[in-house]
Design brief:
heterodimer; A: about 375 residues; mainly alpha; 3-stranded antiparallel sheet; 16 helices; about 75% helix; about 5% strand; elongated; B: about 375 residues; 18 helices; 4 strands
Chain lengths: ~375, ~375
C-alpha cells in the first residue's frame, strides 16, 4: 500500500481526483439545491466542442487551451439553455436537451474533423469522452488546482450571497442583491467543475459527479455549511478511490469507477443516514404498524366487552382473527406481555379466549378517548 | 431498378437518417410536450448497459432480442428513477442524473472486461457511424438491403402505428393527464409504452447514430416544431419534415467537409431549431419583436389621439393641439413627433387644418376607447367641424 502511494503516476492521479471531488462537491451542492442537477449534464456534454476547438487552436493536446475552450462552450450551452427557456415557449427539460445534444453533435463533427486532418497527437482526445486518469500529467495538476482554488475562493467570498440566492431568491432581490448576476455566476461555475473533471471522468459521466456527492451529503446534514464540506469530502474520497483503482487495474476506464464508487456512497447514504435514511423510516413505519395493530385489537376487545356489558367478557381469538382477516396471535401476545390482556379458559370451548385486564381497560379508554369517541 | 436504389449508398444513408429522425420525432413529440424529454437522455445512455448485458447473454449485437432488451432497460431506468423520486429524498432531475450514469458506467466497465476485441467498443457505442450502414446488409429476395434501414423502417412503422392507433388517448394523456385518468384511460401505462418505444428506437438507431446523437433526434425536431405550431398533428408532421431536411442537408455538408455524417445531421436539427426560434411565424423572436414594435407604435398614435381629445374645443386648443406642442408636452424629439404624426395622418386618425391638428371620428373613437371605455359603441361625434 505504501509502495502504491509512492508511485508517481498514482500520486498524480490521486491528487487530480481529489481536486475534482473538492470542486464538484462544493459547486454540485448549490446546483442540486437550486434544482439544476441536469445542468451539469448539459454543460459537460457541451464541453466536447470546446475541447476540440481548443485542440484545433493550439494545434496539440495542450490542456490550457482545451480547458479554456471547454469552459467557453460549456458556459455558452448554459446560456443558450437559459435563452431558449426564457425567450421561447420551450420548457426547461427541452432547453437542456436541445443544448446538450446539439453541442455534443457539434463536438462530434469537430472530433471527426480533427481525425480527418490526421493529426498525430489526436489520440488523446478520445480520453475526454470517458476519462483516462493515467493520461493526466503533473503539469495538468497546476491548471486543475488553479481552477479549483479560484472556484472555492469565489464561493467563500460570496458565501452569504450564494446561500441566500439558492434558498430565497425573491428575498435576495428585495434586499438589493444582483440576483441574476449571482445565479448566472453559480450556473457558469458548474462549467468550472466540469472542466476539472474532463480528463478524470470524461464528458459523459460528469453529470453524476456534480449530483452524487451533493445528494449523499444532503442526507447527513441539514445545514448548507456542513453539506458543502461533506460533499467535498465525499467527492474527494470517492474520486481518489476510483481513480487509484483505475490506475492500478490498468485498462478500466476511470470515469465509470469513480462514478460507481460515489453512487455506492449515495445508496448507503439514502438507506442509513440518521434522520433521512430510508432504513430508519422503514423501521419506524414497521414499528408504527405493529403498535397500531396492537391498539386496534385492544379496542376491539374493549368494544366487545362494552357491547356485552361485561368488563370481563372473554372474547374468542378466532372471532378477533375473523374481524381482521389475519392472525392476531402476535399482537395479542404483545398485549399480554404489556399486561393489558390475559388468556382465560372458557369451558366448554377449547379455543383460546382473552379478557381485558383493568390496565387494558384503562389503556383502551385512553386510546378511544384520544379519538374523541370514548362513549363507544 | 430497385437494386440500384438499394445500392445507392448516399441515398441509403440519407434514408436511414431520415427514418431515425421520423421514428424519434414520433415519440419525442410527446416527451417534449409532457416536459419529460430529459428521460430520453437517461434512456439513451443507459441502454448501453442493456446492450452489453444482452450481448453477454445471447451473443447477439443487434436484432429483435437487442431491441426487446433495450425496451426493458429503458423501463428499468425509468422505474429506478421513479423509485428514487418516490423516496422523496431526491428531486426528479437529480434522480435522472444519478441513475443513468450508474447503468452507463456498469455497461462501459463490462465492455472493458469482456469486449476488448469485439466490434462494439466504447466509441461506436457512443457515436455510431451512419456512413457505414450500407456495409451490413441482408438479402431480401434479390436485393441487398442495409440492416439498419430495415430495423429503422420497422421501428418507424411500429411508432407510427402506436401514435395513429392511440392518437386520441396520447393527446388526452399529454395535455390533461388527470382528465384521461378520470375518463378511465390509463395515462401511466401509455407513458410507459411510449418510453419502451423510445428505448427500442434508441437501440435500433444505435448503429447509425449512437447513444448521444439519438437524443438530438428525439428532442430537437419536436422542439423546433413546437415553436412553429399549436396543433399536435402539425407538430408531428413538421417534426418529421425537419428530420428529413436535416438528414439530407447533414449528409451533403458532412461529405463536403469530411466529418461525421450522423453528427452533422444532428447539428442540422439544431440549425433548424435556431431558425424556428428566430423566425417562427408566431413564437419566433423576430415575430415577437415585430409584434412588440407594432404595439409600441399603435400606443404612440393612441397617445396623440388622447392628447388631442383632451384639449379638443377647449380655449387653449390652438396652442395645445399643434405639431410643436406634441414635442414639448409629450417629450418627444422632433423627428419622432413628425414620424408619429405622419403615421397618425396615414391611419386616418388625425387631419391637419393649418397649424391645428384635428381628430377624425376614427381618432376620437380611439381616444374614447381609452379614456371612456364605458361609452364604447356610442357614436364618436360628428365629422370634423370646420
Amino acid at each position: 500500500m505504501l509502495a502504491l502511494l509512492q508511485d508517481y503516476t498514482i500520486q498524480t492521479v490521486a491528487m487530480g481526483a481529489a481536486l475534482l471531488g473538492l470542486i464538484s462537491g462544493v459547486l454540485g451542492s448549490f446546483a442540486v439545491l437550486r434544482k439544476q442537477s441536469l445542468l451539469g449534464d448539459t454543460i459537460s456534454h457541451a464541453a466536447l466542442p470546446g475541447v476540440c476547438l481548443g485542440f484545433i487552436v493550439a494545434g496539440a493536446r495542450d490542456l490550457g487551451s482545451i480547458l479554456v475552450g471547454a469552459l467557453a462552450t460549456g458556459a455558452l450551452a448554459a446560456l443558450l439553455m437559459l435563452l431558449l427557456t426564457r425567450k421561447s415557449r420551450l420548457k426547461t427539460d427541452a432547453g437542456l436537451g436541445v443544448a446538450l445534444s446539439v453541442f455534443f453533435a457539434i463536438g462530434i463533427v469537430l472530433l471527426t474533423y480533427i481525425q480527418g486532418t490526421n493529426n498525430a497527437s489526436q489520440g488523446g482526445l478520445n480520453s475526454f469522452l470517458f476519462g483516462q486518469a493515467a493520461a493526466i500529467l503533473r503539469s495538468d495538476l497546476w491548471v486543475m488546482g488553479g481552477i479549483t482554488a479560484a472556484a472555492v475562493t469565489l464561493v467563500a467570498v460570496f458565501w452569504k450571497e450564494f446561500k441566500l440566492v439558492s434558498f430565497d431568491p425573491v428575498f435576495a432581490a428585495s434586499i438589493g442583491l444582483p440576483v441574476v448576476a449571482l445565479e448566472v455566476t453559480l450556473t457558469v461555475m458548474v462549467a468550472l467543475a466540469v472542466v476539472v473533471g474532463l480528463e478524470m471522468v470524461g464528458v459523459v459521466l460528469m453529470a453524476a459527479m456534480i449530483i452524487a456527492p451533493a445528494v449523499a451529503a444532503r442526507q447527513w446534514s441539514h445545514r448548507l455549511e456542513s453539506m458543502v464540506l461533506l460533499a467535498a469530502a465525499i467527492g474527494m474520497a470517492c474520486g481518489v478511490f476510483g481513480a487509484v483503482l483505475s490506475a492500478v487495474s490498468r485498462g478500466f476506464a476511470t470515469g465509470p469507477l469513480i462514478i460507481l464508487s460515489v453512487s455506492a456512497v449515495v445508496l448507503v447514504s439514502l438507506l442509513v443516514a440518521p434522520g433521512r435514511g430510508l432504513a430508519w423510516e422503514a423501521a419506524r413505519r414497521w414499528d408504527d404498524r405493529r403498535r397500531l395493530q396492537g391498539q386496534q385489537v385492544l379496542t376491539t376487545l374493549y368494544r366487545l366487552a362494552a357491547r356485552h356489558r361485561d368488563p370481563r367478557y372473554p372474547s374468542e381469538q378466532g372471532t378477533v382473527d375473523t374481524y381482521y382477516g389475519v392472525g392476531t396471535q402476535a399482537a395479542l401476545a404483545k398485549l399480554e406481555r404489556r399486561g393489558l390482556v390475559k388468556p382465560v379458559p372458557h369451558a366448554p370451548e377449547a379455543t383460546r379466549h382473552w379478557e381485558l385486564t383493568p390496565a387494558g381497560i384503562g389503556e383502551a379508554e385512553r386510546i378511544l378517548g384520544g379519538l374523541g369517541r370514548s362513549e363507544a | 431498378m430497385l437494386a440500384d436504389f438499394f445500392n445507392n449508398a448516399p441515398l441509403m444513408i440519407m434514408l436511414t437518417g431520415a427514418l431515425v429522425g421520423i421514428a424519434a420525432t414520433l415519440v419525442g413529440t410527446f416527451l417534449v410536450l409532457r416536459g419529460n424529454s430529459m428521460l430520453s437522455d437517461a434512456i439513451s445512455h443507459s441502454i448501453v448497459f442493456g446492450i452489453v448485458i444482452v450481448w453477454l447473454i445471447t451473443g447477439q449485437q443487434s436484432g429483435p432480442v437487442q431491441i426487446i432488451g433495450a425496451a426493458l432497460t429503458g423501463l428499468l431506468t425509468v422505474f429506478l428513477t421513479e423509485l428514487l423520486v418516490s423516496t422523496k429524498r431526491v428531486k426528479q432531475d437529480a434522480a435522472i442524473g444519478l441513475v443513468f450514469p450508474v447503468l452507463f458506467s456498469i455497461g462501459v466497465l463490462l465492455l472493458n472486461v469482456y469486449a476488448r476485441d469485439v466490434h462494439i467498443d466504447q466509441h461506436t457505442v457512443l457515436l455510431g457511424e451512419i456512413g457505414f450502414v450500407w456495409l451490413d446488409t441482408v438479402d431480401i429476395g434479390a436485393y441487398r438491403v442495409p440492416e439498419s434501414l430495415l430495423s429503422m423502417g420497422a421501428m418507424t412503422l411500429v411508432n407510427l402505428a402506436f401514435v395513429v392507433l392511440f392518437y386520441k388517448e396520447l393527446k388526452l394523456a399529454t395535455f390533461d393527464a388527470a382528465l384521461a385518468k378520470a375518463l378511465g384511460f390509463a395515462p401511466a401505462i401509455l407513458f410507459y409504452a411510449l418510453l419502451m418505444l423510445t428505448s427500442a428506437t434508441a437501440v435500433a438507431a444505435f448503429d447509425a447514430v449512437g447513444a448521444v446523437l439519438f437524443i438530438a433526434f428525439v428532442i430537437v425536431p419536436p422542439s423546433a416544431a413546437y415553436l412553429l405550431t399549436d396543433r399536435l398533428w402539425l407538430m408531428l408532421v413538421l417534426g418529421g419534415t425537419i428530420s428529413i431536411a436535416s438528414s439530407v442537408a447533414g449528409y451533403y455538408l458532412a461529405v463536403a467537409w469530411n466529418v461525421s455524417i450522423g453528427g452533422m445531421m444532428a447539428v442540422m436539427t439544431g440549425a433548424f431549431l435556431m431558425l424556428a426560434f428566430l423566425f417562427g411565424p408566431r413564437y419566433g423572436l423576430a415575430a415577437q419583436e415585430l409584434r412588440r414594435r407594432g404595439q409600441a407604435r399603435a400606443n404612440e398614435c393612441r397617445t396623440v389621439a388622447v392628447h388631442l381629445y383632451n384639449h379638443e374645443d377647449r380655449p387653449n386648443q390652438s396652442e395645445e393641439n399643434d405639431a410643436a406642442a406634441l414635442k414639448d408636452h409629450l417629450h418627444w424629439s422632433d423627428a419622432k413627433a413628425r414620424e408619429v404624426l405622419v403615421r397618425c395622418i396615414d391611419q386616418g386618425l388625425v387631419i391637419r387644418q393649418g397649424d391645428l391638428l384635428r381628430l377624425t371620428s376614427a381618432g376620437r373613437a380611439a381616444a374614447r376607447a381609452i379614456l371612456e371605455p364605458w361609452r364604447r359603441g356610442e357614436p364618436a361625434g360628428g365629422e370634423v367641424r370646420p
